Structure formats: structure tokens, C-alpha cells
């Protein structure tokens, strides 16, 4: 098993291995009640975890939420609060999030808001949630106007990644998670790019050694970046903190909103990274070879690299609600080279349009 430490007010570990869900006991210790918020596909596992905890003396309630983005809504949040009230959850009790990133984002936000904050344990069950969503304490929900516009920072007590849970995960979901791993490759660890490029098929095989190394490396990047800038508070053009993890997300999130949250997050981020690279090649000296490397490595695992379903002006307006924007200035994460992140402050509208035009598949 691999343990990756995250520095926070209360430091915690991301544990990656097989059977790590058995380790939940130590994290629940001291809580009289646990609420397990899970996606429908995990209902059997949620029930067996609940039974296990009951046998150890912890009262449990299981709360099933819709699969995917429909879980990240005000209505579902409110339903969860109602269930916690019915269960009599107190400040010494814990919420457990079991599922993909949509479920862990929601469950973390439930924990952040219930009684102004109770303990939270994350058990991610998708690639994307393991390498990204479950780590770092960003929690929240979407509103129609945009992605994750309502949320809080609330760090988990621990993150348990059981790679065996990924067996049976649809390939499209595996690949969506790889988009975030590839992002980590471009911003910090080029070895991840090598691992995908050398054998894209094996990279998408969740039972392979190659895949396990990609996951470990991506988690290490996420943990290191988050540990250095927990609240996304420090960034300048030369020293970029947690905002680096938002590479590809300014356009990516706008696409998700315009597609009414029906797209996979990683697919939208994939297009967003190509866009950001195209902008960076015009503003920050990113070599064209690196821009083309984006297209090649993303396409090698069947991630989308083109987009023609959008009205630019509408997408551009949504991008203004990106959380990195300050005042009227759009701020984009860019690269000077692989592993050299920069902030592109107030890019010229013409440059954005040019980068947008390169996404046209025709
Ligand atoms: N908080 C963060 O730092 C952060 C980081 C990255 C992404 N996110 C968020 O994460 C979300 C995307 O997460 P995701 O890609 O995991 O999507 P998801 O949670 O929607 O899960 C994808 C699908 O896989 C199913 N699923 C989950 N586990 C499964 C399993 N073991 N086997 C089979 N099916 C399974 C789910 O029911 C769902 O239908 C987005 O909302 C995104 O904004 C948050
Ligand atoms: O952890 C972070 O910080 C990230 O930006 C990781 C992203 O992959 C993730 O999608 C995050 O939820 C986006 O954050 P947001 O602040 O733009 O909503
Ligand atoms: Zn993301």
C-alpha cells in the first residue's frame, strides 16, 4: 500500500492499494454515527460498509444520491441535510462519501455545512475521484450559471483509494479520470505523459502496473500542490500555487455548464487543456511541439481534442464566472513548457478567439 501525506490544519493521508476500505474503522473511531452518502452503483458496498460499522458499534445511515452531476444540486444537498437531521447527527459524527467525484464533492459539502462542519471520510470509486476530486478539500455543487459555484474547503480525515473498486468501471470513465492525470503530467510530472504515450491501452487498463503508477504519480502531484497552497491563495505569474490544478478548467467548466452538466468532467477538461495550450503558445512562449503533444497524448486514449458545439460569445461570458477571475480580468492557467506553469492574466480577446478557432474539427 502507498500512503501519500497531505499537509493541512489536520494533516491526513491518501491511502492507495487493495482493500483499503477496511481501514475506515480507524477514521470513524470516536463517532457514534456515520452517514454514508453513495451513488446507486455502490449501494451493495454501502450496505456492507454500514453493516460492518454497525457491528463495530457505530450507528449508520445510508443516503443514495443520483449518479453523476445531478447529485451536485441544491435539492440533493437539502435532502441530505434532512436525512442527517432525522438520523440525529451531531458534531462528533462523520459523513462518508462513497462514489465518484460528483458524490465526494457533494458529500464533502454536506459534511462542511452540517452543523457548520463535521468529520468527513472520502472513499473514491472512480479514477477521477481517486487522482483528483477526493483529495484536497474542495467540495461543492453546481448551479445553472456554472460549475462548482457554491462550495467550501473542507478537508477529509482520510482518503481511501481501493484500486479493486475500479474493476468494472466503464472505459469512458477511466479515460475521463486519465484526463486529470495527464493534466498532472503537463503541470508537474512529465513521467505521467511518458507512461501514457508508451502504451495508451495499458494506461487505461485498471489492473495494470502502468495504470497504478499513473494513479500514484497523479495523487502525489495533487497532494504536493494542495499541501503548498491549501486554499488556492497564492499565485503570481512566476509562482503558481493550487491554481495550477485548474489547468484546462476555464473553458472546460464553461463547456460543462453549456452542456447542462451532461458531459464527463475529464472530457471537458481535455478540450480545455488544448485551448489553454493554444493560448499559452501565443502569450507565454509554449513551444508548438508541446501544444501538439497535448493533442497526441489526449487523443491516444480517446479523449476529445476538438469542439464545435458552442457559441463562443456565450462560452466566453460563462468563463467570466471562473473562480480564478478577479474583477473584470479573466485569468487562465497556462504553461511556458511542460512542468512550468504560469498565470495568463487578462489575455487579449483576439488571442482567445484564435485559440477557440483551432478547436474547430473541420
Ligand atoms: N473537488 C475536486 O478537487 C475535484 C477535482 C476534480 C473533479 N471534481 C468533480 O468530480 C466530478 C467528476 O467525478 P467523476 O468523473 O468521478 O464522475 P461521477 O462521480 O459522475 O462518476 C462517474 C460515473 O461512474 C459511476 N461510478 C462510480 N464509481 C463506480 C464504480 N466503481 N464502478 C462503476 N461505476 C461507477 C457513477 O455512478 C457515475 O455514473 C465533477 O463534478 C468534477 O467537478 C472535483
Ligand atoms: O483541486 C483543485 O484545486 C482543482 O482545481 C482540481 C480540479 O481538477 C477540479 O476540477 C476542481 O473541482 C476545480 O475547482 P474550481 O475551484 O475551479 O471549481
Ligand atoms: Zn478537474
From TrEMBL:
HAMAP family: DHQ_synthase
Name under which the protein is recorded: 3-dehydroquinate synthase
Function statement: Catalyzes the conversion of 3-deoxy-D-arabino-heptulosonate 7-phosphate (DAHP) to dehydroquinate (DHQ).
GO molecular function, one term: 3-dehydroquinate synthase activity
Domain of life where this protein originates: Bacteria
Broad EC category: lyase
InterPro entries given in the database record: Dehydroquinate_synthase, DHQ_synth_AroB, DHQ_synth_fam, DHQS/DOIS_N, DHQS_C
Keywords: Amino-acid biosynthesis, Aromatic amino acid biosynthesis, Cobalt, Cytoplasm, Lyase, Metal-binding, NAD, Nucleotide-binding, Zinc
Amino acid at each position: 500500500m502507498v500512503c501519500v501525506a497531505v499537509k493541512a490544519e489536520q494533516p491526513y493521508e491518501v491511502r492507495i492499494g487493495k482493500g483499503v476500505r477496511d481501514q475506515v474503522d480507524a477514521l470513524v473511531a470516536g463517532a457514534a454515527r456515520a452517514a454514508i452518502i453513495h451513488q446507486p452503483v455502490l449501494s451493495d458496498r454501502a450496505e456492507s460498509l454500514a453493516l460492518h460499522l454497525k457491528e463495530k458499534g457505530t450507528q449508520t445511515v445510508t443516503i443514495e444520491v443520483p449518479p453523476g452531476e445531478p447529485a451536485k444540486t441544491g435539492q440533493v444537498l437539502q435532502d441530505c441535510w434532512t436525512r442527517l437531521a432525522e438520523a440525529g447527527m451531531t458534531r462528533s459524527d462523520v459523513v462518508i462519501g462513497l462514489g465518484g467525484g460528483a458524490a465526494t464533492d457533494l458529500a464533502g459539502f454536506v459534511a462542511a455545512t452540517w452543523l457548520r462542519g463535521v468529520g468527513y471520510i472520502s472513499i473514491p470509486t472512480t479514477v477521477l475521484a481517486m487522482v483528483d476530486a477526493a483529495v484536497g478539500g474542495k467540495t461543492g455543487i453546481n448551479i445553472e450559471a456554472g460549475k462548482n459555484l457554491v462550495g467550501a474547503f473542507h478537508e477529509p480525515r482520510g482518503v481511501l483509494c481501493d484500486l479493486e473498486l475500479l474493476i468494472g468501471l466503464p472505459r469512458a470513465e477511466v479515460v475521463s479520470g486519465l484526463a486529470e492525470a495527464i493534466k498532472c503530467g503537463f503541470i508537474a510530472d512529465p513521467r505521467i505523459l511518458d507512461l501514457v504515450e508508451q502504451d495508451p491501452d495499458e494506461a487505461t487498463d485498471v489492473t495494470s502496473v502502468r495504470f497504478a503508477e499513473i494513479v500514484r504519480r497523479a495523487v502525489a502531484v495533487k497532494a504536493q500542490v494542495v499541501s503548498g497552497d491549501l486554499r488556492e491563495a497564492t499565485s503570481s505569474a512566476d509562482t503558481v500555487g493550487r491554481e495550477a490544478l485548474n489547468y484546462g478548467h476555464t473553458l472546460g467548466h464553461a463547456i460543462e455548464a453549456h452542456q447542462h452538466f451532461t458531459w464527463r468532467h475529464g472530457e471537458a477538461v481535455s478540450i480545455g487543456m488544448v485551448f489553454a495550450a493554444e493560448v499559452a503558445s501565443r502569450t507565454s512562449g509554449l513551444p508548438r511541439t508541446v501544444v501538439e503533444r497535448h493533442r497526441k497524448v489526449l487523443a491516444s486514449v480517446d479523449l476529445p481534442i476538438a469542439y464545435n458545439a458552442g457559441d463562443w460569445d456565450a462560452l466566453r461570458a460563462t468563463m467570466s464566472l471562473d473562480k480564478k477571475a478577479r474583477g473584470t480580468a479573466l485569468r487562465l492557467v497556462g504553461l511556458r513548457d511542460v512542468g512550468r506553469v504560469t498565470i495568463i492574466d487578462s489575455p487579449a480577446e483576439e488571442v482567445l478567439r484564435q485559440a477557440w478557432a483551432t478547436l474547430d474539427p473541420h
